[in-house]
Amino acid sequence: MLNELAEEGATSKNQLIASLVKEAWERKRARNFTYALLDQISEERSDLLDRLAQ
Asked: How far, in whole angstroms, is CA 50 from its chain's centroid?
């Protein structure tokens, strides 16, 4: 399977693996960034709702 994917992309197996690892790393970084933003928004919203409830 790895050989076929490398041939389709006209790359070596090492290049293909490096590309796949890089893509996975970038997805993980983007996911972590998004989760951090959502946590921040949730905290700010919670604080706002607490103030409105008073």
From this structure: 31
Q: Is this prediction's pTM over 0.85?
A: no
Contact 33, 24 (CB under 8 A): no
Q: How far is CA 32 from the centre of its chain?
A: 6
Q: Write out pLDDT tens, residues 20-41.
A: 999 999 999 999 999 999 999 9
Contact 8, 19 (CB under 8 A): no
Instruction: Please tell me whether residue 12 adopts helix, strand or coil conformation.
Output: coil
Q: What is the distance between the alpha carbons of residues 33 and 39, in angstroms, rounded to a whole number?
A: 10
